[in-house]
Amino acid sequence: MLRGAIGGVSMLPPLTEMNLAKALDLGEALRLAFGHLERGRPAEARRLARQLEHQRPGLPGLAYLLGLIALAEGEGRKAAQHLAKALQQTPDASPPLLAMARAQANQGRDPEAEGYYRRLVAVAPDSAEAMGELAELLLRAGRASEAVAPLRHATVLRPRWAAALNNLGVAERTIGRSQAAALAFARAVDAQPGLAKAHANLAATLRRLGRPDEAAASALRAVVMQPAEAVHWFELAEALGGCGEAGPADAYARALRLDPADGLGASLALARLGAAPVPARAPDAFVRTLFDQYAERFDQDLVERLGYAGPAVLADSVRRIAGEGPLDIIDIGCGTGLAGVALLPLARRLDGVDISGHMAARASARGVYDNVTVGELTETLLQRPRGYDLVSAADVLIYLGDLAPIFAAVAMALRPGGCFAATVEAVAGEGYCVQASGRFAHSAAYLYAVAGQAGLTLVLMEEQPVRREHGEAVPGFVFVARKPAG
Predict the structure, then answer these.
(1) DSSP E strands: which ranges in 89-243?
(2) Contact by Cβ (8 Å): 352, 363
(3) Residue 485 main-chain phi, psi, to 5 deg
């Protein structure tokens, strides 16, 4: 988190230790305690503060001091209790407001922290710290578009604040403003040349802008600075591949060793290069990270830029096989709820599940689902035997290679006569593969086979592109499989 010293008491020259039991100047003793804290000596500050509290509990500034000490020691709840008392004395004072926002964030209470940050920026609009930390909280919540304005303001107030410039680049990139992001990252590395993550972020952005040679140079700087960071090796691999250089497989492999959960999808890249076997599915950590980061601009990108038609195609296919309902439906991989909108007219009950918490939150906010949960799709289905008339999966199976587990789970979750409707990306042949996009494509023969293994019958299978990419339609299938009625 962006951090700076919390103001309120000036730094003090060294003072001779005093016995507070005999001290007459409690204010000077309070100043001494603040001085200890500002010099990184919280134990000494705490000892003096306790003596002050014993002598005069209501001493102005003491509650603030106790809050700062607790915050420095990582005790957010205790800090908040002291700071609440401080704010009763001085409700609009900037230092205790900033400390209280940090205390709430320390406890994972981000909505409460946001409220205090907003109170602070209202009374102190030129507090760069408040702007920067509020923006960081917004970024963590997947609200990048809201983070841009406070970060711009913070970096006007402190033009060489590298951490805030890096966060500004992240926010700009997340909302699709790559040129602005590249400028922010370049300013960050100029302000702090040793900030490795800014070099890596600049590499990723330059790559998206079609400047792979510059991207490789930036990624290499990040790797040299922090060779134990998986993301730096991944960005180096991506850049090397983009400029036709040798070595991307080695860099991807290094990234995977450093991050075995594979939140970056290095295993998919290695399979695509033929340097590793094709995995059974995209790593959960990769899918979760991808869509947590993508949630805010998901609808705009898919519908407006990629011509995404999956939900409408899916709903039309269901109507042709199952009629107008009403049906009990679970939308797996519900994303932001685009498919839910299309399926709602057919639903008696409509549930959603997604592995990404940020996507699930947006689906829930859309107001079309009876219930939205965050969870792994196969496990969720297995926990709900014979619970549904329809399982839908719009643009979801493209993150799974081996579909046997999900088909088996769907078969358990369906009632007799129920249907499984889904879209996939298509490939010729007998099986499935990882594409250059990192997504999986499946053949028609494979879909028929895996459905039969699960005891389902494909009753509809049609070629149907559901999106465009690089100006071209992406080949796909829409299918509906039915469970026997008996």
Answers:
(1) none
(2) yes
(3) -75, -25
CA dist list (Å): 50 to 30, 43, 54, 65, 336: 11, 11, 6, 10, 51
The tokens of 172 are what?
A: 């700009």
* Residues contacting residue 224 through CB under 8 Å, at least 6 positions apart: none
Question: Token pair for residue 101?
Answer: 């926002």
User: Per residue in 77-118, pLDDT tens?
Assistant: 999 999 999 999 889 899 999 999 999 998 989 999 999 999
Residue 283 and residue 439 in contact, taking contact as beta carbons nearer than 8 Å: no
- For residue 206, the one-letter residue type is L
Output the pLDDT for position 301: 64
Measure the CA–CA gap between 195 and 166, rounded to whole angstroms. 9
> What are the phi and psi torsion angles at 198 (to 5°)?
-70, -35
Position 429: which residue type? Answer: G
Q: Which residues of the chain have pLDDT under 70?
A: 1-24, 246, 296-307
Instruction: Considering only the C-alpha atoms of the chain, give the largest distance between any 2 of them, rounded to a whole number of Å.
Output: 90
Alpha carbon 432 to chain centroid, angstroms: 29
What is the Cα 382 distance to its own chain's centre? Answer: 27
Contact by Cβ (8 Å): 110, 141 = yes
Return the structure tokens found at 376: 């792994």
Residue 374 structure tokens: 């965050």
Helix (H, G, I), strand (E, B) or coil at 29: helix
Q: DSSP H helical segments within 158-208, as ranges?
A: 162-174, 178-191, 196-208
Which of 175, 113, 181, 121 has its CA nearest to residue 144? 175
Q: Which residues contact 167 (CB under 8 A, 6 or more apart)?
A: 2, 132, 135, 136, 139, 147, 151
Alpha carbons 378 and 407: distance in angstroms, whole number: 9
Report which DSSP code applies to 301: I
Residues whose CB falls within 8 Å of the CB of residue 241, separated by 6 or more in sequence, listed in order:
248
CB 207 within 8 A of CB 238: yes
* SS3 assignment, position 385: coil
